[in-house]
């Protein structure tokens, strides 16, 4: 459906879990949008939504919605998304796009064939610290980028049952790293462990390389009582540290002051310089994500995470799982040739 003629968009929500309720809160107050109904077979125990709670996606489609937000479990993204695409409904699908490269590919093809607006909810792209960081990297403030290191850890989220920490949490870091640097992954290696008694992995240590040679490290788990969301990018002129929990961005500059200590002067390294924490506007990332998607559905120029970008992230995540299982480094082909068989085994991994 298209809304290029203007007017209020009719939106639906599929899934009333923890993230679904956040989407409902935003949709209920979003300018130019009316939340008309929600789909969740379990109903609404709070009764606070003020809109009908339906049992099936087909009932929602019958209400002539312009777009739907898909916030159901990851394993259901494919069947729900395909039903929406087949009925001409645009969709914002929570990350990850799907639980496998095959499923994600089918979603991409379905929405593209139908000519519909569709996006993936990689919310970190709308974090103020990372948005500001990306602008600074594009302006060349760091010079050449040497390394991207992310840490994403915290307690187990009981909302997750159908995927492990790689598909659920590490997809955040994969997407934000590629987006912030403007570079795609070319190879990945990983080690995973499962300590919580679940079928899926709950901790991963990953090493990757981007197309320009930048080294990448990701540490992700949901086994820690310490909640941490950190992105550190090191380059020619120093390093940026983004804390996406607080949306703070700090720059540590390389020093330009010579040392008189002969032993240190002989070491051709960098010196500590000035530290700056930037004052940046801090709007809620989920609200910004919804505003961008609404604008796209209205036919306006808008920066959304496309399904093909979401597919690329699933492809890299699948490479991490393949690497951890086989104990090898996995090459991930450029996105133009992303397919179910686009990864190839290289050499034994070393993490």
From TrEMBL:
InterPro entries: Gfo/Idh/MocA-like_OxRdtase_N (IPR000683), Gfo/Idh/MocA_Oxidoreductases (IPR051450), GFO_IDH_MocA-like_dom (IPR055170), NAD(P)-bd_dom_sf (IPR036291). Residues 131-240 form the GFO/IDH/MocA-like oxidoreductase domain. It comes from the Bacteria. Residues 10-122 form the Gfo/Idh/MocA-like oxidoreductase N-terminal domain. Coiled coil: none annotated. Pfam families: GFO_IDH_MocA, GFO_IDH_MocA_C3. This is Dehydrogenase. It comes from Plantactinospora mayteni. The lineage of its organism: Bacteria, Bacillati, Actinomycetota, Actinomycetes, Micromonosporales.
């Amino acid at each position: 459906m298209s809304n290029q003629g203007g007017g209020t968009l009719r939106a639906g929500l599929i899934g009333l879990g923890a993230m679904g309720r956040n989407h409902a809160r935003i949709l209920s107050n979003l300018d130019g949008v009316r939340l008309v109904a929600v789909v969740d077979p379990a109903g609404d125990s709070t009764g606070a939504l003020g809109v009908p709670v339906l049992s099936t996606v087909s009932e929602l489609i019958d209400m002539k919605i312009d777009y739907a937000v898909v916030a159901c479990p990851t394993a259901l993204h494919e069947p729900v998304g395909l039903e929406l695409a087949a009925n001409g409904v645009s969709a914002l699908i929570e990350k990850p796009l799907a639980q496998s490269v095959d499923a994600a590919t089918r979603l991409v093809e379905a929405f593209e064939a139908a000519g519909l607006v569709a996006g993936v909810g990689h919310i970190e792209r709308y974090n103020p610290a990372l948005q500001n960081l990306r602008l600074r990297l594009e302006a060349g403030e760091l010079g050449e980028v040497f390394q991207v290191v992310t840490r994403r850890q915290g307690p187990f989220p009981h909302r997750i049952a159908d995927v492990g920490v790689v598909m659920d949490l590490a997809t955040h870091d994969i997407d934000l790293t590629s987006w912030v640097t403007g570079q795609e992954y070319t190879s990945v290696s990983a080690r995973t462990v499962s300590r919580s008694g679940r079928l899926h992995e709950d901790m991963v240590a990953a090493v990757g390389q981007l197309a320009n040679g930048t080294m990448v490290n990701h540490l992700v788990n949901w086994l820690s009582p310490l909640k941490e969301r950190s992105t550190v990018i090191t380059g020619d002129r120093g390093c940026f540290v983004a804390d996406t929990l607080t949306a703070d961005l700090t720059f540590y500059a390389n020093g330009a002051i010579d040392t008189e200590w002969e032993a240190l002067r002989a070491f051709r390294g960098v010196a500590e310089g000035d530290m700056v924490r930037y004052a940046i506007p801090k709007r809620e990332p989920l609200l910004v994500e919804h505003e961008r998607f609404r604008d796209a559905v209205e036919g306006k120029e808008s920066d959304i995470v496309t399904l093909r970008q979401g597919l690329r992230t699933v492809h890299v995540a699948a490479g991490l799982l393949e690497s951890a299982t086989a104990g090898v480094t996995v090459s991930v082909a450029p996105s133009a040739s992303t397919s179910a068989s686009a990864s190839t085994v290289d050499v034994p991994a070393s993490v």
